[in-house]
Specification:
With 251 residues, the chain is of the alpha+beta class. The chain is built from 7 helices and 8 strands; from the N terminus they run αβαββααββαββααβ. It folds into 2 domains: 98 residues, Alpha-Beta Plaits (2-Layer Sandwich), CATH 3.30.70.100; 117 residues, Alpha-Beta Plaits, CATH 3.30.70.
Length: 251
């Protein structure tokens, strides 16, 4: 009996350790997309590297990844945060915003660079039912494909099921890896649900080739035909090719 209890204890210890190591999905995520003032992307990256991310870490704000769209003269800066709840993130960001080091760094950045951001879009998101995540770091740098789908009213469940059960495996077959997918809290201006997904590939060119191969895949063509027998599931999609910043966790 004593040996049995010891064995149970060892098993529970191993399971607990594995639970600590494995990345666990959070209840809340928030995607932010900055429209960067012309020729100021370097300035935004500098501010986040030198000031924003270090102070965020101080307050336990978890940013999964920072990405650039385009070249050093590109026009967007994107990042993805996670937290136990929207309220928890809001409280931590309040503390972050009041931090003297953040205020000092932000002021110094403004004096040096002037205006750097024209617009900020925030997308509060929840983990969708059945969503699967791979938030682990890759051995080699990747490029990411961010998509924001506008899903027609009443079509969210079939769209999500098609993505999970058919689209993701076919993308994987053609070299595009699924990092995760989410449902936005707010609908788009036309009243459509928004489904957000993040894929990863070896390079921007590799991603384009994978997408082309995906759409030519006979299995996908059949899936699309059958799933849209009663009408389209989505109206449009915004897509961004994301290059990780040097200090991004997800690369």
């Amino acid at each position: 009996m004593k040996r049995f209890l010891i064995l149970i204890g060892v098993v529970l210890t191993i399971l607990a350790a594995q639970a600590d190591i494995a990345p666990q999905p959070s209840a809340y995520y928030e995607l932010r997309i900055y429209d960067v003032t012309s020729n100021k992307l370097d300035a935004v990256v500098e501010r986040f590297h030198d000031t924003v991310e270090p102070v965020r870490q101080k307050y336990g704000i978890s940013t999964l990844g920072y990405w650039l769209v385009g070249t050093t003269n590109g026009d967007k800066f994107v990042y993805l945060m996670t937290a136990p709840s929207k309220e928890a993130l809001k409280e931590k960001e309040k503390e972050f915003g009041a931090d003297p080091k953040f205020k000092e760094g932000y002021a110094a950045s403004n004096r040096k660079h002037g205006k750097t951001v024209d617009k900020i879009a925030a997308l509060p998101m929840a983990a969708g039912p059945g969503a699967q995540y791979d938030l682990s770091a890759a051995k080699t740098p990747r490029v990411f494909d961010l998509r924001i789908y506008s899903v027609l009213p009443g079509k969210l469940d079939p769209f999500r099921n098609r993505w999970r059960d058919q689209a993701v495996p076919i993308y994987e077959r053609h070299g595009l890896h699924s990092v995760g997918w989410w449902i936005a809290e707010q609908k788009d201006p036309d009243g459509n649900d928004r489904f957000i997904c993040l894929l990863a590939g070896e390079s921007a060119d590799a991603i384009q080739k994978s997408i082309a191969a995906f759409h030519k895949d006979p299995e996908w063509q059949q899936v699309e035909k059958e799933s849209e027998r009663d009408g389209k599931l989505r109206s449009k999609v915004e897509a961004f090719k994301l290059t990780p910043a040097g200090f991004s966790g997800l690369k």
